[in-house]
Amino acid sequence: MTQILHIVGGGMAGSEAAWQAAEMGVQVVIHEMRPKVETFAHKTGHLGEMVCSNSFRSDDSEQNAVGLLHWEMRAANGLIMATADAHRLPAGGALAVDRDPFAETVTAKLTAHPNVSVSYEEITTLPTEGNWIFATGPLTSGTLGQAIQAETGAEALAFFDAIAPIIYAESIDMSQAWMQSRYDKGETEEERTAYLNCPMDKAQYEAFIDALLAADKTEFHDGETAGYFDGCLPIEVMAERGRETLRFGPMKPVGLTNAHHPDTKPYAVVQLRRDNALGTLFNIVGFQTKMKYGAQTDVLRMIPGLENASFARLGGIHRNTFLNSPTLLDAQMRLKSKPHIRFAGQITGVEGYVESAAMGLLAGRMAACEILGRDCPVVPQDSAMGALVHHITGGAEAKTFQPMNVNFGLFRPVDGLKGGRRGRKDRYKAYTDRAKSVWTDWLGEIGP
Q: What is the pLDDT of residues 24-36, one digit of tens each?
């Protein structure tokens, strides 16, 4: 009898897991509760819908860990990366995508695959038998979350994830704003002008910080704590850490020249990135926020060039649940207490679209190997995939475990290379060369 792989959740991780297993010849059922059961962040019932940024971040596979992860996923015939490449937008060296066509294509590819079917219903319990991958992401439903909590015996771990606002391009005042990527990064003129920049002088910056600190914010419910992930801090939380924090973060003025006043150096700069292929929508880079809607419009319209901004979507904040994976999952991403169940994606304690999809890729291949009776070689720790999965399944300190982006700090040192900033370029190139080699070998061992 054919064994079926059930995948709960049709986001980045679930979609990639389904694709990988199906391509290996396994019959897959994706269980997706949307659109029957909605979340506040999702707008459609599409698989692979992007709900926060539209960026997959750096695409540099020689000097950046997330760019290396892109390379490894492409080498593994990854659905998410192939679809992102097909719907790429100019982003100055980053990989940004047109979010709606991206999700539509992911959905079309999966539903057309002969080994994939989709069941639109909510799974509320952990099954006692079968082959399962739970890739329900940061917005795992409350009922299922309770079932996971009951099984793991651990208190729910959560932080708050914030979403950046999106603005209609036609409402931006281009007599004040200009198009330029930081340090003119990119190989084409389109890449070098991928970001829209709004400058502030010192007085404007100080008034903006005052308004940000005084704005009405979303209140937390009883029992919830604001344990934010540092890679996705709301702007007002950054401002509370010091008045200059934003100026050294998402509002840093470096690498930019004001096209309208080239001799005047901005004190701070707000950047916006194209959010769709038509160029009609822009999201404010790094401006996740928990301000209430009325306060958001008032404060954000203080930014020069955005005085008459019209918002396609205001920012928001939500609870983001994840497992204490170092204590709960084995090296094959299986739940130790129920090894017929794997977890993948953000719920395992990785952060970001790319990292979530990467863990889905591994879980899908591991589950397929098990169903097909194949040996599954250990994922090489010196690859980006291996460094990340090793971190979440045992390399991290369980007592202080928090969501993690892929980064070179997770990689084992390369013998003979010096540390420090001066040796960083050579060190990163050595990391990526080594990773590509061992990852290619692993793909050869695991087979198509």
A: 999 999 999 887 7
